[in-house]
Specification:
The protein is α/β, with parallel strands linked by helices. It contains 14 helices and 15 strands. It folds into two domains: 242 residues, P-loop containing nucleotide triphosphate hydrolases (Rossmann fold, 3-Layer(aba) Sandwich); 219 residues, 3-Layer(aba) Sandwich (Rossmann fold), CATH 3.40.50. The protein has a nine-stranded mixed β-sheet, sandwiched between helices. Strands 12-11-13-10-14-15 form a six-stranded mixed β-sheet.
Protein backbone atom coordinates (compact mmCIF):
# COMPACT_ATOMS: atom_id res chain seq x y z
CA UNK A 1 0.00 0.00 0.00
CA UNK A 2 1.27 3.46 -0.88
CA UNK A 3 -0.10 6.69 0.58
CA UNK A 4 0.55 10.17 -0.74
CA UNK A 5 -0.83 13.40 0.75
CA UNK A 6 -0.65 16.45 -1.46
CA UNK A 7 -3.41 18.70 -0.08
CA UNK A 8 -6.91 19.30 -1.79
CA UNK A 9 -9.06 16.39 -2.89
CA UNK A 10 -8.85 12.69 -2.25
CA UNK A 11 -8.81 10.02 -4.87
CA UNK A 12 -8.47 6.28 -4.57
CA UNK A 13 -7.32 4.00 -7.36
CA UNK A 14 -7.71 0.31 -6.70
CA UNK A 15 -6.70 -2.48 -9.05
CA UNK A 16 -6.48 -6.21 -8.53
CA UNK A 17 -3.28 -6.76 -6.58
CA UNK A 18 -2.62 -3.03 -6.20
CA UNK A 19 -3.96 -0.39 -3.86
CA UNK A 20 -2.97 3.26 -4.04
CA UNK A 21 -4.50 6.23 -2.32
CA UNK A 22 -3.82 9.83 -3.29
CA UNK A 23 -5.17 12.44 -0.93
CA UNK A 24 -5.24 16.20 -0.90
CA UNK A 25 -6.63 17.34 2.41
CA UNK A 26 -8.42 15.46 5.16
CA UNK A 27 -11.23 13.05 4.47
CA UNK A 28 -14.69 14.21 5.54
CA UNK A 29 -16.85 11.61 7.27
CA UNK A 30 -20.06 13.55 6.93
CA UNK A 31 -21.95 10.86 5.02
CA UNK A 32 -22.73 8.84 8.11
CA UNK A 33 -23.75 11.71 10.38
CA UNK A 34 -27.32 11.73 11.64
CA UNK A 35 -29.55 13.60 9.22
CA UNK A 36 -27.32 12.94 6.21
CA UNK A 37 -28.55 10.78 3.34
CA UNK A 38 -26.73 8.87 0.61
CA UNK A 39 -27.84 8.64 -3.03
CA UNK A 40 -25.95 6.36 -5.41
CA UNK A 41 -26.59 7.22 -9.08
CA UNK A 42 -25.80 4.51 -11.61
CA UNK A 43 -24.01 5.40 -14.87
CA UNK A 44 -23.24 3.28 -17.92
CA UNK A 45 -24.29 1.70 -21.18
CA UNK A 46 -26.97 -1.03 -21.23
CA UNK A 47 -25.86 -4.58 -20.33
CA UNK A 48 -22.86 -3.36 -18.32
CA UNK A 49 -24.10 -4.74 -15.01
CA UNK A 50 -25.63 -1.55 -13.61
CA UNK A 51 -28.78 -3.23 -12.32
CA UNK A 52 -26.74 -6.11 -10.95
CA UNK A 53 -24.51 -3.69 -9.04
CA UNK A 54 -27.47 -1.63 -7.86
CA UNK A 55 -29.35 -4.64 -6.55
CA UNK A 56 -26.26 -6.00 -4.81
CA UNK A 57 -25.72 -2.69 -3.04
CA UNK A 58 -29.31 -2.56 -1.86
CA UNK A 59 -29.14 -6.15 -0.61
CA UNK A 60 -25.90 -5.47 1.24
CA UNK A 61 -27.00 -2.29 3.01
CA UNK A 62 -30.46 -3.67 3.80
CA UNK A 63 -28.91 -6.78 5.33
CA UNK A 64 -26.77 -4.53 7.52
CA UNK A 65 -29.96 -2.97 8.87
CA UNK A 66 -29.57 0.30 6.94
CA UNK A 67 -32.86 1.41 5.41
CA UNK A 68 -32.12 1.19 1.69
CA UNK A 69 -34.25 1.16 -1.45
CA UNK A 70 -33.75 0.71 -5.19
CA UNK A 71 -35.38 3.12 -7.66
CA UNK A 72 -35.25 1.66 -11.15
CA UNK A 73 -36.24 3.85 -14.10
CA UNK A 74 -36.61 0.87 -16.46
CA UNK A 75 -39.27 -0.70 -14.27
CA UNK A 76 -41.16 2.59 -14.04
CA UNK A 77 -40.92 3.01 -17.83
CA UNK A 78 -42.40 -0.44 -18.44
CA UNK A 79 -45.26 0.26 -16.03
CA UNK A 80 -45.99 3.73 -17.42
CA UNK A 81 -45.30 3.84 -21.15
CA UNK A 82 -47.63 2.05 -23.51
CA UNK A 83 -46.73 0.88 -26.97
CA UNK A 84 -43.42 0.12 -28.68
CA UNK A 85 -40.27 0.34 -26.52
CA UNK A 86 -37.75 -1.25 -28.84
CA UNK A 87 -34.36 0.28 -29.69
CA UNK A 88 -35.90 3.26 -31.55
CA UNK A 89 -37.37 4.46 -28.27
CA UNK A 90 -33.79 4.93 -26.99
CA UNK A 91 -32.52 6.86 -29.99
CA UNK A 92 -31.30 10.34 -28.95
CA UNK A 93 -32.60 11.76 -32.25
CA UNK A 94 -36.12 10.60 -31.36
CA UNK A 95 -37.12 13.87 -29.69
CA UNK A 96 -40.49 12.73 -28.39
CA UNK A 97 -39.11 9.52 -26.89
CA UNK A 98 -36.16 11.39 -25.37
CA UNK A 99 -38.51 13.84 -23.65
CA UNK A 100 -40.55 10.93 -22.31
CA UNK A 101 -37.44 9.17 -20.99
CA UNK A 102 -36.24 12.36 -19.28
CA UNK A 103 -39.62 12.95 -17.68
CA UNK A 104 -39.77 9.39 -16.38
CA UNK A 105 -36.22 9.50 -15.05
CA UNK A 106 -36.74 12.66 -13.03
CA UNK A 107 -40.08 11.45 -11.74
CA UNK A 108 -38.27 8.42 -10.31
CA UNK A 109 -35.44 10.62 -9.01
CA UNK A 110 -37.91 12.86 -7.20
CA UNK A 111 -39.53 9.79 -5.66
CA UNK A 112 -36.11 8.63 -4.45
CA UNK A 113 -35.32 12.00 -2.89
CA UNK A 114 -38.69 12.18 -1.18
CA UNK A 115 -38.21 8.68 0.22
CA UNK A 116 -34.74 9.59 1.48
CA UNK A 117 -36.07 12.71 3.16
CA UNK A 118 -39.01 11.06 4.89
CA UNK A 119 -37.98 7.43 5.47
CA UNK A 120 -34.66 6.03 4.31
CA UNK A 121 -30.91 6.40 4.65
CA UNK A 122 -29.54 5.08 1.34
CA UNK A 123 -31.15 5.11 -2.11
CA UNK A 124 -29.88 3.76 -5.43
CA UNK A 125 -31.08 5.51 -8.62
CA UNK A 126 -30.74 2.97 -11.44
CA UNK A 127 -30.70 4.56 -14.90
CA UNK A 128 -28.17 4.96 -17.73
CA UNK A 129 -27.27 8.65 -17.04
CA UNK A 130 -24.81 8.40 -19.92
CA UNK A 131 -24.17 12.09 -20.67
CA UNK A 132 -22.44 14.81 -18.67
CA UNK A 133 -25.48 17.02 -19.23
CA UNK A 134 -27.85 14.44 -17.70
CA UNK A 135 -25.58 13.95 -14.69
CA UNK A 136 -25.38 17.70 -14.12
CA UNK A 137 -29.16 17.92 -14.26
CA UNK A 138 -29.36 15.11 -11.71
CA UNK A 139 -26.88 16.90 -9.43
CA UNK A 140 -28.67 20.25 -9.76
CA UNK A 141 -32.06 18.64 -9.16
CA UNK A 142 -30.81 16.94 -5.98
CA UNK A 143 -29.11 20.09 -4.74
CA UNK A 144 -32.22 22.18 -5.26
CA UNK A 145 -34.43 19.56 -3.58
CA UNK A 146 -32.29 19.22 -0.46
CA UNK A 147 -31.44 22.93 -0.20
CA UNK A 148 -35.03 23.47 0.90
CA UNK A 149 -34.67 21.00 3.77
CA UNK A 150 -33.15 21.94 7.11
CA UNK A 151 -30.81 19.63 9.03
CA UNK A 152 -30.52 17.26 6.11
CA UNK A 153 -27.61 16.84 3.72
CA UNK A 154 -27.26 14.61 0.67
CA UNK A 155 -24.13 12.64 -0.13
CA UNK A 156 -24.45 12.14 -3.92
CA UNK A 157 -22.17 9.53 -5.50
CA UNK A 158 -22.12 8.36 -9.12
CA UNK A 159 -21.28 4.70 -9.79
CA UNK A 160 -20.11 4.08 -13.36
CA UNK A 161 -19.85 0.54 -14.70
CA UNK A 162 -17.44 0.18 -17.62
CA UNK A 163 -16.97 -3.14 -19.44
CA UNK A 164 -14.50 -3.91 -22.22
CA UNK A 165 -13.84 -7.56 -21.38
CA UNK A 166 -15.35 -9.63 -24.20
CA UNK A 167 -16.32 -12.55 -21.98
CA UNK A 168 -18.02 -10.34 -19.38
CA UNK A 169 -19.84 -8.44 -22.12
CA UNK A 170 -21.05 -11.65 -23.72
CA UNK A 171 -22.27 -12.96 -20.37
CA UNK A 172 -24.00 -9.65 -19.62
CA UNK A 173 -25.72 -9.58 -23.03
CA UNK A 174 -27.02 -13.13 -22.60
CA UNK A 175 -28.25 -12.38 -19.07
CA UNK A 176 -29.94 -9.19 -20.27
CA UNK A 177 -31.74 -10.95 -23.11
CA UNK A 178 -32.83 -13.90 -20.95
CA UNK A 179 -33.90 -11.95 -17.87
CA UNK A 180 -34.94 -8.44 -18.92
CA UNK A 181 -38.73 -7.89 -19.03
CA UNK A 182 -38.13 -5.90 -22.21
CA UNK A 183 -37.36 -9.12 -24.07
CA UNK A 184 -39.50 -11.75 -22.34
CA UNK A 185 -41.90 -12.00 -25.32
CA UNK A 186 -39.24 -11.62 -28.04
CA UNK A 187 -37.35 -14.48 -29.77
CA UNK A 188 -33.69 -14.63 -28.74
CA UNK A 189 -32.21 -13.62 -32.11
CA UNK A 190 -34.61 -10.71 -32.48
CA UNK A 191 -33.91 -9.59 -28.92
CA UNK A 192 -30.14 -9.78 -29.52
CA UNK A 193 -30.41 -7.51 -32.57
CA UNK A 194 -32.64 -5.03 -30.75
CA UNK A 195 -30.30 -4.89 -27.74
CA UNK A 196 -27.29 -4.32 -30.00
CA UNK A 197 -29.10 -1.45 -31.69
CA UNK A 198 -30.16 0.03 -28.35
CA UNK A 199 -26.56 -0.05 -27.11
CA UNK A 200 -25.38 1.60 -30.34
CA UNK A 201 -27.89 4.43 -29.77
CA UNK A 202 -26.47 5.04 -26.31
CA UNK A 203 -22.85 4.73 -27.48
CA UNK A 204 -23.38 7.63 -29.87
CA UNK A 205 -23.97 10.02 -26.95
CA UNK A 206 -22.12 8.27 -24.10
CA UNK A 207 -19.67 10.39 -22.11
CA UNK A 208 -17.73 8.66 -19.31
CA UNK A 209 -17.31 10.52 -16.03
CA UNK A 210 -14.28 12.82 -16.19
CA UNK A 211 -15.28 15.58 -13.78
CA UNK A 212 -13.07 15.14 -10.70
CA UNK A 213 -15.04 17.76 -8.79
CA UNK A 214 -17.81 15.15 -8.34
CA UNK A 215 -17.93 12.07 -6.12
CA UNK A 216 -17.77 8.88 -8.13
CA UNK A 217 -16.84 5.21 -8.11
CA UNK A 218 -15.78 3.58 -11.37
CA UNK A 219 -15.93 -0.19 -11.78
CA UNK A 220 -14.01 -1.52 -14.75
CA UNK A 221 -14.99 -5.05 -15.77
CA UNK A 222 -16.84 -5.61 -12.50
CA UNK A 223 -14.06 -5.18 -9.91
CA UNK A 224 -10.86 -5.83 -11.96
CA UNK A 225 -10.19 -2.13 -11.44
CA UNK A 226 -11.94 0.31 -9.11
CA UNK A 227 -11.40 4.08 -9.14
CA UNK A 228 -12.91 6.21 -6.39
CA UNK A 229 -12.90 9.98 -6.27
CA UNK A 230 -14.04 12.36 -3.49
CA UNK A 231 -15.42 9.59 -1.32
CA UNK A 232 -16.84 10.83 1.99
CA UNK A 233 -18.94 9.10 4.61
CA UNK A 234 -18.95 5.69 6.25
CA UNK A 235 -21.62 4.15 4.03
CA UNK A 236 -19.85 5.21 0.83
CA UNK A 237 -16.53 3.82 2.03
CA UNK A 238 -18.33 0.58 2.86
CA UNK A 239 -19.76 0.57 -0.68
CA UNK A 240 -16.28 0.86 -2.20
CA UNK A 241 -15.00 -2.12 -0.21
CA UNK A 242 -18.08 -4.15 -1.14
CA UNK A 243 -17.92 -3.28 -4.85
CA UNK A 244 -14.26 -4.36 -4.91
CA UNK A 245 -15.45 -7.86 -3.98
CA UNK A 246 -18.48 -8.63 -6.15
CA UNK A 247 -18.24 -10.42 -9.49
CA UNK A 248 -20.43 -12.50 -11.79
CA UNK A 249 -18.24 -15.60 -11.87
CA UNK A 250 -20.12 -18.89 -11.98
CA UNK A 251 -19.54 -20.55 -8.63
CA UNK A 252 -21.76 -22.24 -6.06
CA UNK A 253 -22.25 -21.61 -2.35
CA UNK A 254 -23.66 -24.41 -0.20
CA UNK A 255 -25.07 -23.79 3.27
CA UNK A 256 -25.95 -26.52 5.76
CA UNK A 257 -26.46 -27.04 9.45
CA UNK A 258 -24.35 -29.46 11.49
CA UNK A 259 -25.46 -33.03 12.02
CA UNK A 260 -27.21 -34.28 15.15
CA UNK A 261 -25.14 -34.50 18.33
CA UNK A 262 -24.72 -36.66 21.41
CA UNK A 263 -27.02 -34.22 23.27
CA UNK A 264 -29.83 -35.94 21.34
CA UNK A 265 -31.93 -32.80 21.76
CA UNK A 266 -35.15 -32.49 19.71
CA UNK A 267 -34.74 -30.43 16.59
CA UNK A 268 -35.75 -26.82 17.21
CA UNK A 269 -37.58 -26.88 13.87
CA UNK A 270 -39.99 -29.38 15.42
CA UNK A 271 -41.08 -27.06 18.21
CA UNK A 272 -44.85 -26.60 17.87
CA UNK A 273 -46.31 -23.30 19.10
CA UNK A 274 -49.37 -23.29 21.32
CA UNK A 275 -52.58 -21.64 20.14
CA UNK A 276 -51.65 -18.64 22.27
CA UNK A 277 -48.26 -18.30 20.57
CA UNK A 278 -49.26 -18.95 16.95
CA UNK A 279 -49.74 -15.25 16.20
CA UNK A 280 -46.76 -14.14 18.26
CA UNK A 281 -44.05 -12.86 15.87
CA UNK A 282 -41.49 -13.18 18.66
CA UNK A 283 -41.87 -16.95 18.92
CA UNK A 284 -39.55 -17.87 16.05
CA UNK A 285 -36.93 -15.44 17.31
CA UNK A 286 -37.17 -16.77 20.84
CA UNK A 287 -36.69 -20.33 19.61
CA UNK A 288 -33.34 -19.25 18.21
CA UNK A 289 -32.04 -17.34 21.18
CA UNK A 290 -33.60 -19.19 24.06
CA UNK A 291 -33.59 -22.95 24.45
CA UNK A 292 -30.25 -23.46 22.69
CA UNK A 293 -27.74 -25.79 24.33
CA UNK A 294 -26.03 -24.28 27.34
CA UNK A 295 -22.37 -23.36 27.05
CA UNK A 296 -21.29 -26.57 28.77
CA UNK A 297 -22.77 -28.56 25.87
CA UNK A 298 -21.13 -26.58 23.09
CA UNK A 299 -18.38 -29.20 22.96
CA UNK A 300 -20.84 -31.97 22.09
CA UNK A 301 -19.94 -34.33 19.25
CA UNK A 302 -21.93 -35.89 16.42
CA UNK A 303 -23.98 -38.95 17.26
CA UNK A 304 -24.51 -41.90 14.89
CA UNK A 305 -27.15 -40.02 12.92
CA UNK A 306 -24.92 -36.95 12.68
CA UNK A 307 -22.03 -39.06 11.38
CA UNK A 308 -24.30 -40.56 8.75
CA UNK A 309 -25.25 -37.06 7.59
CA UNK A 310 -21.54 -36.17 7.35
CA UNK A 311 -21.08 -39.15 5.03
CA UNK A 312 -24.14 -38.26 2.93
CA UNK A 313 -22.91 -34.66 2.68
CA UNK A 314 -19.56 -35.90 1.35
CA UNK A 315 -21.25 -38.05 -1.30
CA UNK A 316 -23.45 -35.12 -2.35
CA UNK A 317 -20.55 -32.71 -2.73
CA UNK A 318 -18.35 -35.22 -4.55
CA UNK A 319 -21.03 -35.52 -7.21
CA UNK A 320 -21.41 -31.73 -7.45
CA UNK A 321 -17.64 -31.12 -7.67
CA UNK A 322 -17.04 -33.82 -10.31
CA UNK A 323 -16.98 -31.25 -13.15
CA UNK A 324 -14.35 -29.01 -11.51
CA UNK A 325 -10.72 -29.47 -12.67
CA UNK A 326 -9.39 -30.51 -9.26
CA UNK A 327 -12.62 -32.06 -7.99
CA UNK A 328 -12.94 -31.72 -4.20
CA UNK A 329 -9.65 -29.82 -3.93
CA UNK A 330 -11.39 -26.86 -5.60
CA UNK A 331 -13.95 -26.71 -2.78
CA UNK A 332 -13.37 -24.16 -0.02
CA UNK A 333 -14.86 -25.23 3.31
CA UNK A 334 -15.76 -23.01 6.28
CA UNK A 335 -17.08 -24.25 9.62
CA UNK A 336 -17.62 -22.84 13.09
CA UNK A 337 -15.13 -23.75 15.80
CA UNK A 338 -17.56 -26.12 17.55
CA UNK A 339 -16.72 -29.86 17.31
CA UNK A 340 -20.10 -30.77 15.78
CA UNK A 341 -19.45 -28.38 12.88
CA UNK A 342 -15.89 -29.57 12.29
CA UNK A 343 -16.96 -33.22 12.45
CA UNK A 344 -19.69 -32.64 9.85
CA UNK A 345 -16.97 -32.08 7.19
CA UNK A 346 -14.50 -34.73 8.43
CA UNK A 347 -15.02 -37.07 5.44
CA UNK A 348 -14.58 -34.44 2.72
CA UNK A 349 -10.85 -35.03 2.36
CA UNK A 350 -10.13 -31.33 1.91
CA UNK A 351 -8.87 -28.59 4.21
CA UNK A 352 -11.45 -26.67 6.21
CA UNK A 353 -11.24 -23.25 7.83
CA UNK A 354 -12.65 -22.96 11.36
CA UNK A 355 -14.04 -19.50 12.13
CA UNK A 356 -15.47 -18.26 15.43
CA UNK A 357 -17.43 -15.84 13.22
CA UNK A 358 -19.66 -18.79 12.30
CA UNK A 359 -20.38 -19.84 15.88
CA UNK A 360 -24.00 -19.80 17.04
CA UNK A 361 -25.59 -16.74 18.61
CA UNK A 362 -24.36 -16.42 22.19
CA UNK A 363 -27.42 -16.51 24.45
CA UNK A 364 -25.34 -15.65 27.52
CA UNK A 365 -27.22 -15.92 30.82
CA UNK A 366 -30.29 -17.18 28.93
CA UNK A 367 -28.53 -20.26 27.61
CA UNK A 368 -30.71 -23.31 28.07
CA UNK A 369 -33.72 -21.39 29.40
CA UNK A 370 -37.19 -22.02 28.04
CA UNK A 371 -39.30 -19.09 26.89
CA UNK A 372 -41.39 -19.24 30.07
CA UNK A 373 -38.29 -19.33 32.25
CA UNK A 374 -36.91 -16.29 30.45
CA UNK A 375 -40.16 -14.39 31.04
CA UNK A 376 -40.24 -15.27 34.73
CA UNK A 377 -36.59 -14.71 35.59
CA UNK A 378 -35.98 -11.60 33.47
CA UNK A 379 -39.31 -9.75 33.02
CA UNK A 380 -37.58 -6.45 32.16
CA UNK A 381 -35.41 -8.20 29.59
CA UNK A 382 -38.46 -9.90 28.11
CA UNK A 383 -40.22 -6.55 27.76
CA UNK A 384 -37.16 -4.96 26.14
CA UNK A 385 -36.86 -7.94 23.83
CA UNK A 386 -40.43 -7.60 22.62
CA UNK A 387 -39.96 -3.90 21.90
CA UNK A 388 -36.75 -4.28 19.89
CA UNK A 389 -35.71 -7.90 19.24
CA UNK A 390 -33.11 -6.90 16.64
CA UNK A 391 -31.01 -4.63 18.87
CA UNK A 392 -31.71 -6.11 22.30
CA UNK A 393 -28.63 -7.88 23.64
CA UNK A 394 -29.32 -10.89 25.82
CA UNK A 395 -27.65 -10.55 29.25
CA UNK A 396 -24.07 -11.77 28.97
CA UNK A 397 -24.65 -12.67 25.31
CA UNK A 398 -25.32 -11.16 21.90
CA UNK A 399 -28.01 -9.33 20.00
CA UNK A 400 -29.10 -10.20 16.51
CA UNK A 401 -27.36 -7.03 15.40
CA UNK A 402 -24.12 -8.40 16.87
CA UNK A 403 -24.40 -11.49 14.69
CA UNK A 404 -24.82 -9.35 11.58
CA UNK A 405 -21.76 -7.30 12.50
CA UNK A 406 -19.52 -10.29 13.00
CA UNK A 407 -20.74 -11.88 9.76
CA UNK A 408 -20.20 -8.77 7.62
CA UNK A 409 -16.50 -9.47 6.82
CA UNK A 410 -17.42 -13.07 6.00
CA UNK A 411 -20.06 -11.89 3.51
CA UNK A 412 -17.37 -9.83 1.77
CA UNK A 413 -15.15 -12.92 1.64
CA UNK A 414 -17.96 -15.04 0.19
CA UNK A 415 -18.66 -12.46 -2.52
CA UNK A 416 -14.97 -12.44 -3.39
CA UNK A 417 -14.64 -16.21 -3.81
CA UNK A 418 -14.35 -17.56 -7.36
CA UNK A 419 -14.56 -21.27 -6.50
CA UNK A 420 -17.32 -23.29 -4.83
CA UNK A 421 -17.80 -22.78 -1.09
CA UNK A 422 -19.36 -24.91 1.64
CA UNK A 423 -20.45 -23.28 4.92
CA UNK A 424 -21.34 -25.55 7.85
CA UNK A 425 -22.72 -23.69 10.84
CA UNK A 426 -25.67 -23.43 13.24
CA UNK A 427 -29.29 -22.43 12.89
CA UNK A 428 -29.17 -18.85 14.19
CA UNK A 429 -25.97 -17.95 12.31
CA UNK A 430 -27.07 -19.57 9.06
CA UNK A 431 -30.41 -17.78 9.18
CA UNK A 432 -28.61 -14.42 9.22
CA UNK A 433 -26.25 -15.54 6.47
CA UNK A 434 -28.99 -17.05 4.32
CA UNK A 435 -31.11 -13.91 4.78
CA UNK A 436 -28.46 -11.93 2.90
CA UNK A 437 -28.71 -14.14 -0.19
CA UNK A 438 -32.52 -14.17 -0.34
CA UNK A 439 -32.98 -10.44 0.42
CA UNK A 440 -34.84 -11.13 3.64
CA UNK A 441 -35.19 -8.10 5.95
CA UNK A 442 -32.60 -8.82 8.60
CA UNK A 443 -35.07 -8.45 11.46
CA UNK A 444 -37.08 -11.33 9.96
CA UNK A 445 -34.14 -13.68 9.53
CA UNK A 446 -35.02 -15.78 12.60
CA UNK A 447 -38.25 -16.82 10.90
CA UNK A 448 -36.46 -18.41 7.94
CA UNK A 449 -36.74 -22.17 7.61
CA UNK A 450 -33.47 -24.09 7.53
CA UNK A 451 -34.26 -27.76 8.23
CA UNK A 452 -31.72 -30.32 9.42
CA UNK A 453 -30.15 -32.66 6.85
CA UNK A 454 -30.75 -30.13 4.07
CA UNK A 455 -28.18 -28.52 1.78
CA UNK A 456 -29.09 -25.11 0.38
CA UNK A 457 -27.42 -24.48 -2.98
CA UNK A 458 -27.00 -20.87 -4.12
CA UNK A 459 -25.78 -19.86 -7.57
CA UNK A 460 -25.44 -16.27 -8.84
CA UNK A 461 -27.40 -14.80 -11.71
CA UNK A 462 -28.02 -11.30 -13.00
CA UNK A 463 -30.67 -10.35 -10.49
CA UNK A 464 -29.52 -12.16 -7.35
CA UNK A 465 -29.03 -15.78 -6.30
CA UNK A 466 -30.84 -18.87 -7.51
CA UNK A 467 -31.73 -21.25 -4.69
CA UNK A 468 -32.14 -25.02 -4.70
CA UNK A 469 -32.61 -27.31 -1.69
CA UNK A 470 -31.47 -30.90 -1.35
CA UNK A 471 -32.65 -33.01 1.57
CA UNK A 472 -30.21 -35.83 2.29
CA UNK A 473 -31.90 -38.88 3.84
CA UNK A 474 -30.31 -40.13 7.04
Amino acid sequence: MEFQANGGMNRILVQTGDFRMMSEGDLRWGGSARGNKVLFVMVGLPARGKSYIAKKLVSYFSWLGIKTKLFNVGNFRRETVKGDQTSDFFDATNVSAKETRERLAFAVLEEALQWLHTQGSVAVFDATNTTAERRKRVSDFCKEYFSKLSQTELNLVFIESICNDKQILEDNFNQKIKNSPDYKLMPYEEAAKDLAKRILNYEKVYEPIEDDTTSYIKLINLRSKVISNRIYGTEVHMAVAFLMSIHIGNRTIWLTRTGHTTDDRPDLDAVIPTEKDKNNPMLEMMKIRVGLPSSKNKSSHLNARGLKYAQKLTEFLESKMASWPNKMKDLKVFTSTLPRSVETVQYLGTKSFQLSTLNMLDTGDCSGLSIEEFKQRMPEGWEAWQKDPFHYRLPGGESYRDVVRRLEPFIIDLERETKPVLVVSHLSTLQVLYGYFVDCPVEKSPQLSLPMHTVIQLTPHQYGWKEERFQLPV
